[in-house]
Write a structure and sequence with these properties.
Layout lengths: L7 H27 L5 H24 L1 H8 L6 H27 L6 H24 L27 H11 L1 H4 L6 H25 L3 H7 L10
Helix pairs in contact: 1-2, 1-4, 2-3, 2-5, 4-8, 5-6, 6-8
């Protein structure tokens, strides 16, 4: 059953509240373990993380509130997806906590040039995210087939079947280096593995419930990485 759409005011309020909560939570996860606000990599990373999110949120609120509301949903209906989300949340928690401790106790040192390169790659991940939602306004955060949904095969969907997950993989794989920690690469590299498990279950649902998806899979062979998988 499709939830009743929120009013624009209610949607704006919910989006702003979640955005402010995310800033506070992520800030605490980065700076409290570091024991210092003099953590320039974290300040740059938070800018990279939240400025694009705020911009995208405002644009969607004005131009496509239905898509914004779909992006706000977090409750998965499929049991396998709930398990994947639980594992991914633990990995993300480790990914954001480890760099602060790494900085405080000098476990590893990432050169500034590599930090900047990681920042650039994270921005490329956001660019891919924007291109994806521009092509597919059914891009919900939860795994579902919506009323009137159609298969999208243009833009990044012509190269891989799940460009949104590729964008997320880029952002979070390079988060560890952007935050100046080699040790955080461990959870960072495990996150795409969790996404691969999510993709497997999602494709079962799409093949079953989305007309034309089976044919699309025959046309676009790669799920996440062109020429690899």
């Amino acid at each position: 059953m499709t939830p009743r759409p929120l009013s624009r005011t209610a949607l704006a309020t919910m989006t702003a509240a979640r955005f402010l909560a995310a800033i506070i939570i992520v800030g605490c996860m980065l700076f409290l373990p570091a024991g210092s606000l003099g953590y320039w990599e974290a300040w740059v990373y938070m800018g990279l993380l939240f400025v694009p999110v705020a911009t995208i949120g405002v644009v969607l609120l004005i131009k496509d509130p239905d898509l914004l509301e779909r992006r706000m949903r977090t409750r998965e209906r499929e049991a396998p997806q709930r398990k994947v989300i639980a594992v991914s949340s633990l990995l993300l928690l480790a990914l954001l906590l480890i760099p602060g401790f790494d900085r405080r106790y000098s476990w590893s040192t990432v050169p500034p040039s590599l930090v900047v390169l990681a920042d650039i790659l994270i921005l490329l991940g956001y660019l891919l995210f924007v291109l994806t939602i521009r092509e597919n306004r059914f891009a919900s955060r939860v795994v579902e087939v919506q009323e009137d949904q159609v298969v999208v095969s243009t833009g990044p969907y012509a190269l891989v079947r799940h460009p949104m997950y590729l964008a997320v993989s880029l952002i979070f794989t390079f988060t560890s280096l952007a935050l100046g920690s080699y040790w955080a690469l461990i959870p960072a590299l495990l996150l795409p593995v969790a996404l691969a498990a999510r993709i497997g279950n999602e494709e079962q649902l799409l093949r079953r419930d989305l007309p034309g998806y089976e044919e699309y899979c025959q046309k676009v062979k790669y799920r996440l990485l062109p020429l690899i998988w």
